[in-house]
Design goal:
Largest interface: A-B, 41 and 28 residues
Helix content of chain A: 25-40%
Number of helices of chain A: 21
Mean pLDDT of chain A: 88
Shape of chain A: globular
Helix content of chain B: over 70%
Mean pLDDT of chain B: 82
Structural class of chain A: alpha/beta
Radius of gyration of chain A: 26 Å
Oligomer: heterodimer
């Protein structure tokens, strides 16, 4: 395998060669090392982007941290193999040598740009720190070099940015600063660990093209760690698929995406949602939820400063019908979560009307709303935090039924039934949430939400924190629930691709307002509003039909 | 997909708990505390001299087999007074802890959950906290007269606003947890919500805070007694024993040093235990394993 690639790459030597790398847990019993990653072989050539893809726990981050020498020494330890950076084995470097190699020969961009920067120093000072540590340039030259690099990452008003603190910049700008810091000494290898996962799609697109551009300029080899096949399809030269600490398959982008050989790769790639909407019959059922002119305004009243108000939800209208899955799509800050929380009355709307079957719920008192809670239920984003860790799963599921006066025996019988509906066994009843994986917990949350037989299920980013294969299963489950019951689903997501897979209707929100609302087909195929077009344009992997292992015909 | 794969997270968390609590200093602290508690409870049955019996013949006696710590200016056996003093100190410690934690928890939960109550309760707490604790205690004892109960209340009152603050802060952050919001949207009534989802999750930090209150109450009692505004002087409490030894410090330093050592070791052990419990109960420590 590797000889084929070497031929393909000509005579150039690889920047990074990982051979038979294994990393073990430090406190595993002697003689039986518990391996976190095992038998890793990877090569990266100058100017190439190698994407390492895998689900959570696959060992992709451990591999990248091993390369940087950043493994937590009290937890993980490389126990076999070599990591050769331009022929020099990193695993046998002294700590001083390793420190010298970082930033000069290899550097890293992390997932969360806010935590990667020191909040109490200006970004200029922080970039300067790299130069002070690794070069002998005088202050004037350093400043010039930094300003040049800030310009190279396309930041506006570089003089002002130089003196800014991280909190004064947007997420995308912060990530540009981190990239600037990583590339200022033109390292041969850039490791990017999920660098765009925390960013909105439109920002993600800009950052990806920036990395691409700088890579070509400096001939940097990029080791790109991600879980998102869409991103992979857009940027990878070659792809390595990891699962459970091992490399499943390595190949060129088209090998992996169009002709995957390993069953795991096939499963993973085919589970990736693509932007092609499923064909769905128009929904003609009766309306169950009507939202009219809904407003949520946050006002900040200062004693000495003028009153400031933020319209989190601004004049939103839509109708949800029985058996319909309505997607609310938007980037962070678009007000989609505030909208959901207004509807379930976790927060009180400022004005407007929300009716369930004609019954007003937006302006009713909390006490009057209490009996209506039964009819709207919510599934939250983070399955790790939405179940009380101290309460058994069964008791969590029956909580709602008990609140509405059902008997214990009746409730428990229904809970077992619900667990079966969501694909879990009755034995889950007496276990605690920590005994389950993220996907299983999300199923439990869905079971809990369904326990009260709600008319409306609100899924607030309910699949965003899940791996693609689990995500696909949960989407099937939602589909199934819709088919079995009359439940209408309000599906809130930032990911147009997921919305394309499941929604009948899509509502696009920006800055608290609905900019476009229509059936999924028209929104995705014939977007009317510029912002919708921008979102579609930025969706990673939109030119690839993952399910059928082929590129999409450009339409 | 079935629920058959069960990661052993719970087991790991428990082992982290055990590991933090089984380090040598913590084990020593636990052993020492156990010894003090047992001897304090069993003090009347240990065949010790009467801690209040005055015997002028033996005043300021040296350390001997009959008087392990010597005797004080009234000829009372200091060892007997120190062991009996542990009873007083432990009762004050436990009593203050409960007297601070229970109202603190109740007011804290109310302040954390209800916005209007928050304004009123917290301003009131700010008021109490702005008065120096010892001054407040002295004034209180001076007004009501010295007894075990008044000393206990005098020490607990300045401590409990801190508990209210702690609980209020915890409740405020717990309220935003998705599982609490999930319970609200399941129609869980406020009282059930508090009892089931909010209060149990404040207990771990409360236990830790409790150990610190326990230690500082023992110290405060000693300070009040030393200043002469605590327990009546004939009651054998550590503060009283040390206060009586003060006049003879140059002659008989052991009259202060030995009871002082007991006081210091007890407070140190309780604090060590509290630190260890904070580490063990912190979910971040458990997750790191």
């Amino acid at each position: 395998m590797s000889s084929v690639i070497e031929q393909a790459q000509g005579t150039e030597a690889p920047v990074l060669q990982i051979r038979e790398l294994a990393v073990a847990l430090v406190d595993s019993p002697p003689g039986h090392p518990r391996l976190v990653v095992d038998d890793i072989h990877l090569e990266i050539f100058p100017g190439e982007t190698l994407c390492v893809v895998g689900e959570s726990g696959s060992g992709k981050s451990v591999t990248s941290f091993a390369v940087m020498g950043l493994l937590a020494p009290d937890a993980l330890k490389p126990c076999a193999g070599q990591i050769l950076l331009e022929g020099e084995d990193i695993l046998r470097c002294t700590p001083d040598r390793l420190r010298a190699l970082r930033a000069t020969r290899m550097s890293m961009v992390f997932q969360e740009p806010m935590t990667a920067l020191n909040p109490v120093r200006t970004v200029g000072w922080q970039i300067d720190e790299v130069l002070r540590t690794h070069t002998t340039l005088d202050a004037g030259r350093r400043r010039k070099k930094i300003l040049d690099m800030l310009a190279a990452v396309h930041l506006p008003e570089i003089e002002r940015i130089y003196d800014s603190f991280p909190h004064q910049l947007s997420g995308g700008q912060r990530q540009r600063i981190v990239i600037c810091m990583a590339l200022i000494l033109s390292p041969k290898l850039l490791i990017a660990d999920e660098p765009t996962t925390a960013l909105d799609v439109t920002t993600q697109k800009q950052i990806l093209s920036l990395i691409r551009e700088l890579q070509q300029k400096f001939k940097t080899a990029v080791l790109f760690i991600t879980h998102d096949f869409g991103v992979v399809a857009d940027i990878a030269d070659r792809i390595a698929v990891m699962n459970k600490g091992k490399i499943v398959e390595v190949g060129t982008r088209d090998d992996i995406l169009a002709r995957p050989t390993a069953p795991y790769t096939r499963m993973l790639v085919s589970a990736v949602p693509s932007l092609v909407p499923m064909h769905r019959e128009p929904v003609t059922t009766s309306a169950v939820l009507e939202v009219r002119n809904l407003q949520k305004t946050y006002t900040e009243r200062g004693l000495f400063k003028p009153t400031r108000s933020v319209h989190a939800v601004n004049d939103v209208n839509f109708t949800l019908r029985r058996k319909e899955i309505l997607g609310v799509v938007g980037e962070s800050g678009s007000g989609k979560s505030s909208l959901a929380r207004c509807i379930v009355r976790l927060i009180d709307p400022s004005s407007g009307s929300v009716t369930i079957d004609g019954q007003e719920i937006a302006t009713s008192t909390r006490r009057a709303y209490q009996p209506l809670r039964q009819r709207i239920q919510m599934v939250f984003q983070d399955p790790y935090r939405s179940l009380n860790a101290r309460i058994k799963v069964g008791d969590s599921i029956i909580e709602g039924m008990r609140n509405f006066g059902f008997g214990v025996r009746e409730s428990r019988a229904r809970a077992v039934e619900l667990l079966e509906i969501v694909g879990m066994g009755a034995e889950a009843m007496d276990r605690y949430p920590h005994q389950f994986s993220g996907g299983q917990r999300q199923r439990i949350c869905i079971a809990r939400a369904l326990a009260l037989k709600p008319d409306i299920l609100i899924a607030d980013e309910a699949v965003s924190a899940l791996d693609v294969s689990v995500q696909a299963q949960v989407l099937v489950l939602l589909e199934d629930i819709r088919a079995r019951t009359d439940t209408a689903v309000l599906f809130i997501t930032h990911d147009l691709r997921v919305a394309a897979q499941i929604c009948n209707t899509i509502v696009v929100m920006q800055h608290g307002k609905v900019v476009e609302a229509a059936d999924a087909q028209s929104v995705l195929m014939r977007p009317q509003h510029a912002y919708t077009r921008q979102l579609i344009d930025a969706a990673p992997g939109r030119h690839w039909d993952f399910k059928h292992f082929r590129p999409l015909a450009v339409h | 997909m079935s629920s058959s794969t069960i990661p052993a997270v719970g087991v790991l968390a428990r082992s982290a708990f055990r590991r933090t609590l089984t380090t040598v200093p913590v084990m020593l602290a636990i052993a020492l505390l156990a010894l003090i508690v047992i001897s304090a409870i069993a003090a009347p049955y240990l065949g010790l001299a009467d801690p209040m019996a005055i015997d002028p013949v033996y005043r300021l006696a040296d350390i001997s087999a009959a008087h392990w710590f010597g005797t004080d200016a009234y000829g009372r056996d200091v060892f007997a007074r120190v062991i009996h003093g542990a009873r007083v100190s432990l009762v004050i410690g436990v009593g203050t802890m409960l007297a601070a934690l229970i109202p603190g928890l109740i007011l804290g939960v109310i302040a954390g959950y209800f916005r209007t109550a928050d304004m009123i309760i917290m301003r009131f707490m700010d008021g109490i906290m702005s008065i120096p604790g010892i001054l407040l205690a002295i004034a209180f004892v001076a007004v009501t007269g010295a007894s075990m109960l008044t000393v206990l209340i005098a020490i607990a009152v300045p401590e409990f606003p801190r508990v209210v603050r702690l609980v209020r802060g915890l409740i405020l952050s717990l309220r935003d947890e998705p599982y609490v919001e999930a319970a609200i949207s399941l129609g869980t009534p406020v009282t059930t919500l508090m009892a089931r989802h909010l209060v149990p999750n404040t207990l771990a930090p409360l236990i830790v805070q409790g150990t610190f209150i326990f230690a500082s109450a023992i110290l405060s009692e000693a300070i009040l007694s030393f200043l002469g505004v605590g327990m009546p002087p004939e009651v054998p409490s550590w503060g009283n024993v040390i206060a009586e030894g003060r006049t003879y410090f140059q002659l008989k330093p052991e009259l202060i040093l030995l009871p002082g050592l007991f006081l210091a070791l007890t407070v140190l052990s309780v604090n060590l235990l509290g630190d260890a419990m904070r580490d063990a109960l912190d979910p971040k420590m458990a997750r790191r394993v």
